[in-house]
Amino acid sequence: MLEVIGAGVGRTGTLSLKTALERLGFGPCHHMLGLFEDPEQIPMWEAASRGESVAWHQVYARYGSTVDWPGARFWREIAGAFPEAKVVLTVRDPESWYASAASSIYATAVAPPPPDVGEGFVRLRDMSLEVIWDGVFDGRFTEKEHALKVFAEHEAAVREEIPADRLLVFRVSEGWEPLCDFLGVPVPDEPFPRSNERGRFVDEVRERSGAAGGGDAAG
Questions:
Q1: Which helix (H) or strand (E) holds 170?
Q2: What is the predicted pLDDT for the residue at 188?
């Protein structure tokens, strides 16, 4: 059963949050990179992007939490389907976010696929284009002011629509304490994970696309 919904968009610390939630017992945590190992979900996300009905309990049947794209696009629907789940909105300086997203997840999505990756990589990349870059940013992510406006409107909508007692607005630089207090769990005696560096993301994509061979994907 989904217990935590990450409403923050990709590159706001979502990979760090994924690692933290799994360490706290709210795993497995759904994340775009996980679709390399779960490619059968891709048609469901494409259907959601077209406005078709999606069985969210089926999508998240084996997950305890979700962060990052593609789930962040559908935070309203997911929060409605799991009314007891708490919502974490990861936030980041907009200029820093844009630079990071442009050089990592967006660059990966629009670049020609490497010749040594399988069909699944291309499927996941194409899904990310449909769901995120065309669906959220209207195909205009390279227009910085437009992208920043979409980013700000997303954050404002989450803050406005999710009740305060259900929502944590969180910067991963704040560490364990606010997250653990919000979720009602003990603070681990270890550093908060720092998994969101651009280089780490690129390494993850390369590693997973190579492991996926002909059957899995990228975004």
A1: strand 167-170
A2: 98
Residue 90 phi/psi, 5-degree rounding, is -75, 135
CATH superfamily name and code, 4-211? P-loop containing nucleotide triphosphate hydrolases (3.40.50.300)
pLDDT interval class at 209 (50, 70, 90): low
Prediction pTM value? 0.90
Angle between helices 14-23 and 198-212 (to 10 degrees): 70
CA-CA distances (angstroms) from residue 210 to 30, 68, 75, 103, 152?
20, 22, 30, 21, 35
Read off φ and ψ for residue 208, nearest 5 degrees.
-75, -35
Domains of the chain by residue range? 4-211
User: Helix (H, G, I), strand (E, B), or coil: what is residue 126?
Assistant: helix
> CA-to-CA distance for 66 and 129, rounded, in angstroms?
20
Residues shown for the chain: 219
For helices 144-161 and 94-103, angle between their N-to-C axes, nearest 10 degrees: 120
DSSP element (H, E) containing 35 = none
With CA atoms as reference, report the closest residue to 106 among 11, 3, 184, 4. Answer: 11
Backbone φ and ψ for 14, nearest 5 degrees, come out as -70, -35
Between CA 206 and CA 212 the distance in angstroms is 10
Bigger pLDDT: 94 vs 33: 94
DSSP helix/strand/coil, 87: strand
Give strand ranges (E) for 25-166. Answer: 29-30, 65-66, 86-90
